[in-house]
Amino acid sequence: MWLPEGYSTDKKYNVLYMHDGQMLFDSTITWNKQEWGIDETLSALIKKKKIKECIVVGIWNGGQSRHSEYFPQKALTYLTKEEIDSLYHAVRTSGQAVFQGIEVQSDNYLKFLTQELKPFIDRTYSTKKDRQHTFIAGSSMGGLISLYALCEYPNIFGGAACLSTHWPGIFTIENNPIPSAFIQYMNTHLPKAETHLIYFDHGTETLDALYPSLQLKVDSLMRSKGYTKRNWITLVFKGTDHSEKAWRSRLQTPVLFLLSNKKHSIN
């Protein structure tokens, strides 16, 4: 949990839920000695009155189960049995199994988030409980699950920030049906543009080099669903890679998009 300076029960606060919680605040405990720097960035923006006051809930990933908990489960319905079997046999470039023998269980993860965690946060902290003041964010697979949460629970989350969204789902784009399945899912499940905010971005180096062509397809769908610059943005950060260091360097952009004191055109 992160509370802004001067937190008081006399006020009500927006809430930003973030995935990969162990990577957000303290580089001394992370596997790569990098962090998002959430506390520094939000503190500075709040002090300058650029964003609404908020609290941050950092949800730690499950380690071995991370990929299975973050992979949008209902997208599997757009794949054949053979494609799903192939998905579960996918490996990383290191040879390690992507799903590590664990079936996709993101629906249960989101049930935990919405039915256990959020009610606890709302009971324990001084929060604004409605959709317009509740947001979700993450990177890579965390970007996918943030979008999925918005689509599955549009009455709970009013906006999602998806950084370096891992559209391939696995670690190759060749002969990969997963991105198409994600887009088909979005086509029928995206919330109304008038009521939600969606932020996408990606870099151009390392793993992010896989994303540009796929993001263009997503952007085309967003436009067809009525999303405009008033409620959706996709940005490209040339020369940046797939790391907490990169996400930290541009963090204020999605935070400003979701929490700016300037009003967006949503209800």
How would you characterize the overall build of this protein?
This protein is an alpha/beta fold. Helices cover 35% and strands 12% of the residues. It is built from nine helices and six strands, in the order βαβαααβαβαβαβαα. The protein is globular.
Summarize the structure.
This protein is of the alpha/beta class and 267 residues long.
The radius of gyration computed from the alpha-carbon positions, rounded to a whole number of angstroms, is 18 Å
Can you list the strand order of the major beta sheet? 2-1-3-4-5-6
CATH topology: Rossmann fold
Number of strands: 6
Number of domains: 1
Shape: globular
Distance between the termini: 28 Å
Mean pLDDT: 95
- Largest sheet: number of strands, sense, barrel closure: 6 strands, parallel
Order of helices and strands: EHEHHHEHEHEHEHH
Please identify the top-level CATH class: Alpha Beta
Which ranges are low-confidence, i.e. pLDDT below 50, for 5 or more consecutive residues? none
Q: Number of helix segments?
A: 9
State the fourth-level CATH superfamily.
Alpha/Beta hydrolase fold, catalytic domain
